[in-house]
Amino acid sequence: MTETRPLRADARRNRERVLNAAREAFAAEGISVPLDEIARRAGVGPGTVYRHFPTKEALFHAAIVDNLERMIDFAREAARADEPGPAFFAFLERMVAEGGLKRDLAEALGSHDTVECSAPTQQLWDEIDGLLRRAQDDGAIRADLRPTDLKRIIRGVFLATHSPEITDDERRHTFAIVFDGMRPR
Amino acid sequence: MTETRPLRADARRNRERVLNAAREAFAAEGISVPLDEIARRAGVGPGTVYRHFPTKEALFHAAIVDNLERMIDFAREAARADEPGPAFFAFLERMVAEGGLKRDLAEALGSHDTVECSAPTQQLWDEIDGLLRRAQDDGAIRADLRPTDLKRIIRGVFLATHSPEITDDERRHTFAIVFDGMRPR
Amino acid sequence: MTETRPLRADARRNRERVLNAAREAFAAEGISVPLDEIARRAGVGPGTVYRHFPTKEALFHAAIVDNLERMIDFAREAARADEPGPAFFAFLERMVAEGGLKRDLAEALGSHDTVECSAPTQQLWDEIDGLLRRAQDDGAIRADLRPTDLKRIIRGVFLATHSPEITDDERRHTFAIVFDGMRPR
Amino acid sequence: MTETRPLRADARRNRERVLNAAREAFAAEGISVPLDEIARRAGVGPGTVYRHFPTKEALFHAAIVDNLERMIDFAREAARADEPGPAFFAFLERMVAEGGLKRDLAEALGSHDTVECSAPTQQLWDEIDGLLRRAQDDGAIRADLRPTDLKRIIRGVFLATHSPEITDDERRHTFAIVFDGMRPR
DNA sequence: GATGAATGAGCATTCATTCAT
DNA sequence: AATGAATGAATGCTCATTCAT
Fold first, then answer.
1. Which CATH number, 1.10.150.120, 3.60.21.10, 1.10.357.10, 1.10.3210.10, labels domain C60-182?
2. Ranges of each domain in chain B
3. What is the pLDDT of residue C49?
4. B168-182 and A168-182 helices, crossing angle to 10°
5. Which nucleotide's C1' atom has the smallest distance to the CA of D34?
6. Contact between residue C126 and residue C118 where contact means Cβ atoms under 8 Å apart
């Protein structure tokens, strides 16, 4: 959507470097990182960032979309698994554990008061809805869990368990409790 | 703890106006709201804000502490209830529903990477720990739910269900699901 | 010039307290001391300062004039002494040693780029001119030392020897050298 | 020591313009000149000033150091002269006459209650000590004049004779008197 | 295309001064 | 008269964005 024609090799490389630097910086410190700092980490000048992304907000979007796309991939993998229930929970855990951008992505997932990254967000939710329906049809998830609840729970768990200090075991334990709430009694 | 000596009537009124404006503004937009904007909303000059709060961060703290104190009150009320299980869940719901400051309070509840409001935060957690233990002793909550999990879940639910558009019924429904995860199977 | 009619006793006392606080504060930190700080040190509210001095600058003037008047007294005492030469040098030393306000008074003594405190400044210089003339007539001071030179030298010595760390002996030694330059060869 | 790598031509030109504007502004009004005013006089935006000098204080330092370095050059020239006595006095006069920044440099020369520009200040004093010693060895300066006295006298004369209105002749005359005090009787 | 210098609006904070209590 | 709360202009500094090199 940003680039309309093939980029020169060095331009593409720079775009990638900027995006990676942005992902890391935003994940660590949120949107308040100065753009100059991102440029510095990417090893380019601020002008170069603007060649590839028209505003800082667009760069932020791009970083989020990048993450969303990885998650869509996760969801599609999960859709191909044999057992819908375990696949669903495994997907959730993976999504949260490898989610990437911290609070900022979570905001995007909720999509209120923040930028719209509509197309990929919608795609991701579509995939998740599919996973949920299959797991419910399979009897692994209670029937009264609506997609809307799931979104909120994912967001919440995502935000709540994203802290530098938490260990994988601790995160898994908290997950297990929340996941239990989603199962049929 | 905040005012050490009686304030003149007009001063107290202004302090209250500033704090209210700050609470609303911070709740809606996070700490990035310009202080001048808060002053404007409170109908005072920026200097007046500084008469009552030495820095913007102090004002932010004060807003959070204000909320924490309300929640401590909720917790103490819940502690006086007869049935520990229902009291526990009712407290959680009330805390989240009437919590006030959005993401910023949640940050404080998690207390990493953010300002410390240590004393009241600690007090609140002490109260919550007490409620949890009584509910567990009563068999209303699964035994393997650790205070640490509870903190994360509260934070997550808090963040996840704080959106302007959500209805009370929707919130209650999501709560119910998460709460079910905390019950013994 | 400020008070046109006798003040009530408490008002006069407050005026004195403010002026003393101002003298000390200005002496220590220059004109940049906040007026509120002076008020605090004087144990009054800032409004009270304004009742006695219409602006901060006026207060600063008043503090300087206060010092100038003490020096005029020194000069008049010196004028009554028997030996004009020693009296002259003793006056200089006393003026510098007990001068009070540091650089700010010095500015006034030079009276460029700063506020005019014309009448008392003029009076002081008149007295000093008299002392100088008598010492020159007596042969204790070289004839080509003009009042203008003397002003500069006083200012310079004043500024140069006003440091918290300097000892009286050190100051006297530097004085002695400069004073020797004023003597006939 | 200031620029560590070659600057673009326009950047160097702007840096120079800012530094010149700062020198003039600080000389005329002291450190209280608003930085925006300096930027305006230099014909640049305030951000540009900050690109070259990280804080206002750093800019102030730079202006002082610039002057100190010129004086060190003067001192080194004087050290190469044949007759130590006249060279010493000529240096003093030149230092004061062409010194540049008024009271602010003088503060640096005295180095109390103000910013340290230690390295160049120390260098300058080392040079001056050398000149003094040679002149004393040559019998042109009284033996009891200590470097410490000299510092004070230079500071004082510097401050005292820096006024917009003074003529060169007047300054020289005042110098002559003070200098006479330094000679052996 | 890339660079990084320049811009300038915006923000937190201070403080002389005014005025309600 | 005194108090001290309120005001708001001013200041140092930041950072998204533009543009000359």
1. 1.10.357.10
2. 1-53, 63-182
3. 97
4. 120
5. F11
6. no
> How far is Cα D63 from Cα B124, in angstroms, rounded to an integer?
55
CATH top-level class of D57-182: mainly alpha
Q: Do C180 and D180 touch (CB under 8 A)?
A: yes
Shortest distance between the Cα of A5 and any Cα of chain B, in A, equals 38
Query: Cα(A150)–Cα(A77) distance, rounded to whole angstroms?
Result: 19
For residue A4, the tally of other CB atoms under 10 A from its CB is: 5
3-state SS, residue B118: helix
Write down the pTM of the prediction.
0.84
Residue D154 CA to residue D139 CA, distance in Å, equals 20
User: Cβ(C38)–Cβ(C18) under 8 Å?
Assistant: yes
Q: Nearest CA to C22 among C54, C52, C62, C79?
A: C62
What is the CATH architecture assignment of A1-54? Orthogonal Bundle (1.10)
- Flag if C149 and D110 touch (Cβ within 8 Å): no
Contact by Cβ (8 Å): A127, A53: no
Residue (of A150, A131, A147) closest to A86 by Cα position: A131
Q: What is the pLDDT of residue C113?
A: 36
Distance D48 CA to E8 C1' (A): 10
- Which among A104, A143, A109 has a CA at the least distance from the CA of A124? A109
pLDDT at C104 over 60: no
pLDDT at position A155 is 83
pLDDT of res. D1: 41
Q: Please give the protein residue whose CA is closest to the C1' of the nucleotide F19.
A: A47
Question: Is pLDDT above 90 for A141?
Answer: yes
Within its chain, how far is the Cα of C167 from the centroid?
Answer: 20
Residues 6+ apart with CB under 8 A from B177: A142, A144, A145, A149, A153, A181, A182
D163 chain-C contacts, CB cut-off 8 A = 110, 112-113
What pLDDT digit, counting tens, does each position of C19-70 carry? 999 999 988 888 889 999 999 999 999 999 999 999 999 999 899 888 889 8
Which chain D residue's Cα is nearest to C30?
D113
D181–C179 C-beta distance less than 8 A: yes
| Bases on strand F under 7 Å from any protein CB | 1-21
pLDDT of C156 strictly over 70: yes
* Superfamily holding D1-53: Homeodomain-like (1.10.10.60)
pLDDT for residue D164: 66
Query: Among all residues of chain A, which has the CA nearest to that of B145?
Result: A177
The mean-pLDDT minimum among D54-63, D82-91, D154-163 falls in D154-163
Q: Which two tokens stand for residue D161?
A: 């004779």
| Closest-CA residue of chain A to B29 | A113
Chain centre distance of CA C1: 19
Q: Which of B78-82, B109-113, C164-168 has the lowest mean pLDDT?
A: B109-113
**A&B contacts, CB < 8 Å:** 96
Instruction: Tell how far CA A118 is from the center of its chain.
Output: 13
Other Cβ atoms within 10 Å of B82 Cβ, number: 6
Within 7 A of a protein CB, which nucleotides of strand E? 1-21
CATH of domain B63-182: 1.10.357.10
